[in-house]
Every structure is written in C-alpha cells, then in structure tokens.
C-alpha cells in the first residue's frame, strides 16, 4: 500500500550512493531507504508501506514513534538533554527506582546498548568473584565489543579479531550437565539468554534455568541473564526470567527499554553490585536525561496500555496462524513465547527476506533457517493476517 510521497532529504539512489561513499561498510542493508514509521508500519522514500516484523531487531516494542515517547522526548529536550554523570539529575534516579521495581534487582548501571551492558556485567562479575573465566552457550550472541564478543559463539564474528578476552568456554544450550562439567575454580559467571534470539528463537527445556541456578550457587559462580532481546515485554512478561521463576545475580537489558531511543542497563543484586566502587566503571552518555525520559514513558505506556497482555495475545495469534497456513514441506514447526516467534524452515531462508520485502513485509532470518518475528506489540490482527499471507506464499 502506497502513501502520499512526502518531501525527503535524499532520493533512494542518492541515499544508497552516499552510504556507499561515506559510511563504513559493515552492514548488509536491504535496498530500501526508510523515512517514516507509525505503529507496526514503516514507509520508504518512495512512499511504499511495509509491515515491520523486525522492529529494529526487537527495539520498537511500542511501535514506531509512540506518541507518549515522542512527547516525553520533546518535553525533556527543551529542558535538559545531557549532563555528565559527575552531577545528579532529577530524572535518572526516578528511572533507576522504576527499573529496580520491574527487574526485581537492587542496583542499576546505565549504558547505551546491550553490548555495553554485557561489558559492565563481565567487569562486575570479575570484580565480585576475583575469577576470570566465563561459560556461555553455543549459538549465543552477546555483542561485538571485545569482551562481549569473547562470549559470543559464532566463529565468524570472533576469529577475525582474536585474541579476545581469554577464559571463555562454550557449552550446548539447554544442557545443564554440560555447564556442571565445564565449571572450574576460575569461572566468574555463567552467561545465558533465557531464550536465544540470534540463535533462532531457541527455548530451553523447562527446568534448565533452575538447574543452572542451583549449579552456580553450589560452585560459587555468578549467573548473568542477557535479557537484551527478551526484556521489556517481548515474551509477554516484563522479562523472560519470569517464565522460569529464576533470579540471576546480574541481568542486562537494552533494545526495547526506551521505545527506540538508545539505552542499556546492567541490573544487579545488592551484594553483587557493591563490588563496584567509584571509578570502577563509567559511561559518558549512560543515563542521560533524554534517554531516561524516553524509558520512563516506555514503562508507563507498557503498563497503561496493557502491552504485556497484548504481547502474549498477539504472539499466540501469530504462532497459531503461521502454524495453520504455512506448508509443512516448507516449515518444520513454529515456536516462540509472546511476541518472539520463530518459524523453523526445512531449508536456508535468507532469499525469502527479499521476496517478503517485495510484498511489503520486513522480516529477517536468524541462524539461516529460522524466520524470526519480533514485531511491535501494537501490530493489529489485520496486519498479522497480511504478514502470514505473505510468509505462507514465500516458498511457492
């Protein structure tokens, strides 16, 4: 569906050419130039409409340009956008209190991304335990900076930049005994995603996280949950840890935390967080006033508009429709929790991304054979029906 073409800064050809000339070429971009978004929809410079099932990779949980977040940013921008963490602001501690309440943790460190949150967690784990090593899961993804990359499994990400932070070991996801066997006297923390995102929406066995918690407690090793992608309602609860009832020592949250504005946090239990002393870690932009305003508005919108319930309801509807309408010779099965859904295909699916885009639906593929759906919670049933209609035809 096309929308009236609005005035844009650059044409599609100009934008792509300037990117090729001036931007470091680290992204495999789709050949469209997006200029506007509202709800679950985005439009390109040519006025063409798309249903966005990527949502900034699980960032735009509230949809694009949620009016409450926009208003909060506008109001805060007119007062104070940034000041150094050498000073207090009135909004940062307010947000810290709300985040402590919803995370059920005691202390919050503000960063700007999921990767930065992981870096903070790794430093805190080493400081608290005096140990150096980490255990992570196969097919995990925790970020691309040198520390986070060292505990990210896929070799194509790690090998060009080795040597990385030493002491990381990888074990099969969902296998608690493998963690038990891998533990030694120098493991500072086990780092896990409660549901693997980049690994292809992999959901662990029912008692896996509880068993890992018990193993870590007995070994004197910390447990870190990476909720960068699963947090802020993505799985139908504030955080994916709530499905298991397991509490980590440290958790990392980013992506959907501020309605599309860059922010990440590391949250920790009091006895763990106290290992950090003044000067141990810092972030120039972490917890800036503009980001805090966006995050407070995001939390209020999730609560006030019952978006946790909507994530569950629309996620269930999406899974059901995909399971019914996708051909069995194309799809092995559909899995997911809340609005985090994966279609396990019987073949490589990367070529399907182009086909879907041509039909007005933005999707991406994780681990080559899984179509990952992480659309905004505000997506409508009619939009879901359009998405499923397109996906069900992709293999034809």
From TrEMBL:
Pfam families listed in its UniProt record: Aminotran_3
One function term, GO molecular function aspect: N2-acetyl-L-ornithine:2-oxoglutarate 5-aminotransferase activity
Binding residues annotated for pyridoxal 5'-phosphate, in chain numbering: 114-115, 141, 226-229, 284
Cofactor(s) the protein requires to work: pyridoxal 5'-phosphate
GO BP of this protein: L-arginine biosynthetic process
GO cellular component: cytoplasm
Additional facts recorded: May also have succinyldiaminopimelate aminotransferase activity, thus carrying out the corresponding step in lysine biosynthesis.
Subunit structure: Homodimer.
Protein name per UniProt: Acetylornithine aminotransferase
The species this protein was found in: Methanocella paludicola (strain DSM 17711 / JCM 13418 / NBRC 101707 / SANAE)
């Amino acid at each position: 569906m096309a929308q009236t073409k609005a005035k844009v800064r650059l044409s599609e050809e100009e934008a792509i050419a300037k990117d090729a000339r001036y931007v470091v070429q680290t992204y495999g971009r789709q050949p469209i130039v997006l200029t506007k978004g509202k709800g679950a929809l985005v439009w390109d410079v040519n006025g063409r409409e798309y249903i966005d099932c990527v949502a900034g990779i699980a960032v735009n949980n509230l949809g694009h340009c949620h009016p409450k977040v926009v208003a909060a940013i506008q109001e805060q921008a007119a007062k104070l956008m940034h000041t150094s963490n050498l000073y207090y602001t009135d909004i940062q501690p307010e947000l810290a209190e709300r985040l402590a309440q919803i995370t059920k943790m005691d202390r919050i460190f503000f960063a700007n991304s999921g990767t930065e949150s992981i870096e903070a967690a790794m430093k805190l784990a080493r400081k608290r335990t005096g140990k150096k090593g980490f255990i992570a899961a196969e097919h995990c993804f925790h970020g691309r900076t040198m520390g986070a990359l060292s505990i990210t499994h896929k070799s194509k990400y790690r090998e060009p930049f080795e040597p990385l932070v030493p002491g990381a070991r990888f074990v099969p996801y969902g296998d608690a005994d493998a963690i038990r066997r891998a533990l030694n006297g120098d493991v500072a923390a086990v780092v896990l995603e409660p549901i693997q995102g980049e690994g292809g929406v992999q959901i662990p066995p029912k008692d896996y996280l509880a068993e890992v918690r018990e193993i870590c407690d007995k070994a004197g090793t910390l447990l870190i949950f990476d909720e960068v992608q699963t947090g802020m309602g993505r799985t139908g609860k504030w955080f994916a840890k709530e499905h298991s009832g397991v509490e980590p020592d440290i958790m990392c949250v980013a992506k959907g935390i501020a309605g599309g504005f860059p922010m990440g946090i590391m949250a920790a239990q009091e006895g763990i967080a106290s290992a950090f002393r003044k000067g141990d870690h810092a972030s120039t932009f972490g917890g800036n006033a503009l980001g805090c305003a966006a995050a407070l508005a995001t939390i209020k919108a999730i609560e006030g508009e019952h978006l946790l319930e909507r994530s569950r309801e629309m996620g269930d509807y999406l899974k059901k429709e995909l399971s019914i309408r996708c051909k069995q010779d194309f799809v092995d099965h559909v899995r997911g929790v809340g609005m985090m859904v994966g279609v396990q295909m019987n073949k490589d699916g990367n070529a399907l991304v182009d086909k879907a885009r041509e039909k007005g639906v933005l999707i991406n593929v994780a681990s080559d054979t899984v179509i990952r759906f992480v659309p905004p919670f505000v997506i409508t049933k009619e939009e879901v029906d359009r998405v499923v209609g397109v996906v069900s035809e992709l293999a034809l």
